[in-house]
Amino acid sequence: MTGLVLNLLITTPVLAGAPGALRGDRSIEQTAREWIDWVREHLPPLRHPRGNRWPLVTWLGPEHRPLSRAQIDSLLARGLTQHLEVDVTMIRAAQRLQAAGAPVILMEGRRGNWPYDLAGDPAVWSHDHPQSLRVPETWRREPSPGIFLGWAKEGQHLRHTLETFKRAGVTVDGMWLDYEGQPSHAAYYPALLAPKTRSILPKGALKDEPAFAIFRRQLWMQLLSTYVAAPAREVFPAVTVTNWVATLSTPEHAPKGWDDTPHPLAGPTLMTHSAPLAYGVDSYFLTVWDKKQPWDARRVDRLFTHLLLRQVSEDTFNRTRDAPYLGSLPWVARRVVDHPQTPTPAMSRSTYREVLRHLWLRGIDGMQIFNAAPQGANDPLAREELQDTQAIYDEMLAYRSFLDQGTVMNVGYPGPRDETIVWSGLLTPGQALIRLFFQGEGERPLPLEPWPGHTVTLTATPTGSTCLLHKTKNQTVKVECQK
Fold this sequence. Notes:
Layout (H helix, E strand, L loop, with lengths): L2 H8 L17 H15 L13 E3 L10 H9 L2 E2 L9 H9 L5 E2 L2 E2 L11 H4 L11 H4 L8 H19 L6 E6 L8 H5 L2 H6 L8 H27 L4 E4 L29 E2 L2 E5 H7 L8 H26 L4 E2 L2 E6 L12 H12 L7 E2 L10 H18 L2 H6 L1 E2 L12 E7 L3 E8 L5 E8 L2 E7 L4 E7 L5 E6 L1
């Protein structure tokens, strides 16, 4: 997720992802009921049928207690569902969800030295810096990336846990995980200076810091594939598996991180879906914003529009070209605060809603809402995240046939400072669905050729419009646009 919020969530005695984790003196049952009551009162039921598309999943929501049938039905009617953790104590809650026709989705977070520390004695899995070598003590407690004993234990535990779900009659439909532990953040110099680690890792991985950064991310993805995705699919062959910021990356189309550096080459794994990030995170703003330049609402919106579109778009290009069998379940958030002591702006809600429309038109299968905020699930920001994402999901479900069957027309996205037209679309043999808006003032024409020999010119405005194109029997194109 993001360092500040996730650390708070997973180190409390209450289950990760639960609003009770931020209000420890309230009963789990009471806080779950309050959250569901708020959803029922402030989010209308979907106007358009969801069909077999995934409901939205929130990071913060009802705690992992068994919900009543009425509560589950109320969430599903609004396009939402409860998620659970990878824990046998969740089986009863999973049975309730399954009986109500809701998918059983397991979601949890892990950080730090997990799962290396499952191997027991740190001497087995950590770096072995000689005592004569003056290094920070924290270095001596970091995992040696190439020792997989803890990963193997996690694989065994996961397999046993899922088999227990299966014996209880529960089919796990999704494992949408947030495993951010090592080696994804492994440091170069602690590894370089540890004799055991040097003897295990390929020499090329320790050539320099950039080489090590490539190695650690690629290793992390393969470990998740081997010890998480593989056991899950052994037990439930049809399960959907993904992990936070899992993307496909190529040199030509590399998703970038918040520090504006590209992800290294990464191909398909045993995960079934990618999980790119569409976060309006302050870390990116602090990385790229010219400190001498005052904040301006339009410039801020352009910056975050670029950020929210870029990982999903690059990942979609690579999946479509190189692994069309993979789906995508991005994490979305208008505002993520990693640096609460440093004032930063947020993109406007109207522009955020606009970008959400474009994400749906870029080949994704669902959304995971990172509605984490300083005050937990009842924070006004967390509630806005939920309202905005659910409203746009309902709007886009009116075009479900395109979402289900359409081909992505465009994955181009503007630069962080571009004042240009942003457009996205899905194409079927006889129809096209296009959303477009202009990032400046006034109107701009957008000439397109949705089918060979058939050209149209659409008009992009700052408020945006959705256009439905029909190829008629006499080979003309009928255009219907609405705001």
